[in-house]
Amino acid sequence: MKQYCKISLLLAVFGFIGIVFLTISTEAQFHITTVEDSAFSGKERMKPAVPFYHDEHNDAAGIYDCSTCHHVWEDGEKLEYTDSIGMECSACHLAEPGATEMDLIRAYHLQCRTCHLEEKSGPILCAECHVGEK
Amino acid sequence: MYDIYALARGPFAWGAFIIFFGGIIYRLVTTVMEARKKDHVVFDYFSPYYAMRSMLHWIVPFGSTSMRRQPVLTIVTFAFHICLIGVPLFLFAHVILVKESFDISWWTLSGMAAQVMSLIVILSCVYFFIRRLVQPDVRYLSATTDYLMILLVAAPFITGFWAARAWAGFEVATLLHMLSGELLLALIPFTKLSHMFFFPLTRAYAGSEFGAVRHAKDW
After folding, report:
1. CB pairs under 8 A between A and B
2. Residue of A92, A116, A112 whose CA lies nearest to A104
3. Do A134 and B111 touch (CB under 8 A)?
4. What angle do CA B162, B164, B166 make, to 5 degrees?
5. Which stretches of chain A sit within 8 Å of chain B by CB?
6. How far apart are CA A64 and CA A70, in angstroms?
7. Beta strand segments in chain B, E
8. Which distant-in-sequence residues (6+ apart) come within 8 Å of A25 by Cβ?
9. DSSP 8-state code for residue B118
10. A39-60 b/e (C-beta count within 10 Å ≥ 16 → b)
11. Which residues, at least 6 apart from B35, have a Cβ–Cβ distance to it below 8 Å?
């Protein structure tokens, strides 16, 4: 009986460790926790990356259509049933000739704040998103 | 909070800038028209050369006798004015707001520089306030509105610094920052702060009279 207890305890511990490992590795891969774009990496930035919990945000906001944020615009119109998943924002928002990081920042600010103001929910002031020292 | 933000960012901002620029034009036009009626001799003796000479002496640090006699005040005043105008115009957070609304942008200060310059403005305001209270001749000339003006100027910088540092209560500080900045802009044309745009007229007036009439220096 004692032996049985020991084995099951051991199994439980290993199982728990396994679950923790699995969770951490999948979280690290798929769980987005900041707003990031390679256009900002390696550059002097005014503020650190904005914390953004992708799945939690969409659950809370009730966003199930990816193209709500991952939009595609053509000739001044947002295309329906088309999304830009897998593309970085800078792929379009830095693509215009003469575009600078200011254009990319503008896109992020307008995207987030416009919706938050319309919905009267979510951060709108500078330091609500830009937390932490640089 | 969303409603106050939307108001401060939209109609209040438009109102403040329209009153600011409209007020400047209104005050300049009415002042010049009044001078034409009451003090026509100003226009007879107006001299671009003496006007420019006077402006130059008063815009360069230690360019006037008065400035050389009060070195501390001169240094504080120049540092104050440079930071007062420089920070709002070249603050990254301000330029990005303009970029968002109008898709135009320009050179910006680093975060550290902007914070140091804001502190210079705030500390200068403290200096001006104490100076008004303590120095007998200045105290004699100070009305309640003069003290209020200093607070009015300091308010957007104190709340802005607070918002930028994201200290506790920064939400309220950010909204107060926007509102106090807009109030300040709207009041500039109609208070002593109008020296911002009356400076060239005052100097042109004094410079022309001292130069062309009295053949003397006005600095």
Report:
1. 45
2. A92
3. yes
4. 70
5. 46-47, 100, 102-103, 105-106, 109-110, 116-117, 120, 124-128, 130-131, 134
6. 11
7. none
8. none
9. H
10. bbeeeeeebeebeeeeeeeeee
11. B42, B43
Domains of chain B, with CATH numbers? 10-212 (1.20.950)
Please report the pLDDT score of residue B212 as a whole number.
77
For residue A74, what are the β-bridge partners? A77
Within chain A, what is the greatest distance between any pair of CA atoms?
76
Residues in chain B: 219
- Angle in degrees, 0-180, between the axes of helices B170-187 and B11-38, rounded to the nearest 10: 20
Residues B69-108 have pLDDT tens digits of 999 999 999 999 999 999 999 999 999 999 999 999 999 9
Interchain CB contact of B169 with A (< 8 Å): no
Is the interface score ipTM higher than 0.90?
no
Q: Are B180 and B12 in contact (CB under 8 A)?
A: no
The amino acid at residue A40 is: F
Closest Cα in chain A, distance from residue B105 (Å): 8
B44 touches chain A (CB under 8 A): no
At A21 the pLDDT is 61
